[in-house]
Write a structure and sequence with these properties.
The protein is an alpha/beta fold and 252 residues long. Helices cover 38% and strands 16% of the residues. It has one domain: NAD(P)-binding Rossmann-like Domain (Rossmann fold, 3-Layer(aba) Sandwich), CATH 3.40.50.
């Protein structure tokens, strides 16, 4: 399957991941409207944009991703992450019925849908989020599953050229992937025949060891040093079993 000639609609183009997708030049026909032009929290805004634009694929990156903000304002998390995604899904269903065509939907989720205590979570593991952000992203996944042609990508990513913090925990373990590698994965999955949920990440490593390679001045700390200043829970071991992802890549 080759989508090189297809039009792709990107939500959240101003965010870290969305900006990298635009800069990657992987997508020849990319629509990346501003929030003012396409506000996923407003059904009328979505319907108006869909009426005036044609596309074959959606890469849904728009989200309220700051954990602290989700914790402080769960209503906003619901409105953006759950209701916003549901609005998109509903409008896509209407378009598919009206135009008798299928729209492929790539949804960016999070490893935070897992409990992130023991690690090595597969796509079949129980989804028991540990904070409001994770719950809101899990709610978004439920809406996406109502579509017939979708990929839910559970992931955690970082920009190796923009590590803003000065300390990182030696006892928080993740499968975090570099930003550019996630964009490559999105491009690959978009062009694949895969439908369903897939964990996309890299090898198991502490956050400190992973980031230290890119920011030599980084200092080690413990998870307890971080959570004492937070009003929400964070992961202990968020590592994922990414064998499905590796298998899909091998079949390329």
């Amino acid at each position: 399957m080759n989508f090189s000639s297809k039009k792709v609609l990107l939500t959240g183009g101003n965010g870290t991941l969305g900006s990298q997708i635009i800069q990657s030049k992987y997508f020849d026909h990319l629509l990346a409207p501003t929030k003012q032009r396409l506000d996923i929290t407003q059904s009328a805004s979505i319907d108006d944009y869909f009426f005036h634009n044609n596309f074959d694929i959606v890469i849904h990156c728009a989200a309220l991703a700051r954990m602290a903000r989700c914790e402080e304002n769960p209503i906003e998390a619901i409105r953006t992450n759950i209701n916003g995604t549901s609005n998109l899904v509903s409008s896509i269903m209407k378009i598919e019925e009206k135009k008798e065509k299928k729209i492929r939907f790539i949804h960016i989720s999070t490893d935070g849908v897992y409990s992130s205590k023991k690690g090595n979570y597969s796509e079949k593991s129980a989804t028991i989020p540990y904070n409001n952000y994770g719950w809101s992203k899990l709610g978004a996944e439920c809406a996406v599953r109502l579509l017939s042609d979708y990929v839910i990508i559970r992931t955690r990513f970082f920009n190796p050229f923009n590590i803003l913090f000065d300390n990182s925990a030696i006892d928080i373990i993740t499968s975090s992937i570099q930003l550019n590698e996630l964009v490559e994965a999105i491009h690959f999955l978009l062009n694949s025949k895969f439908i369903g949920t897939v964990n996309v990440g890299s090898r198991k490593m502490s956050e400190f060891d992973r980031y230290k390679k890119h920011k030599p001045s980084l200092k080690p700390c413990n998870r307890n040093d971080i959570i004492k200043n937070l009003n929400y829970e964070i992961a202990k071991d968020a590592t994922m079993d990414c064998n499905l992802w590796l298998t899909l890549k091998e079949k390329k």
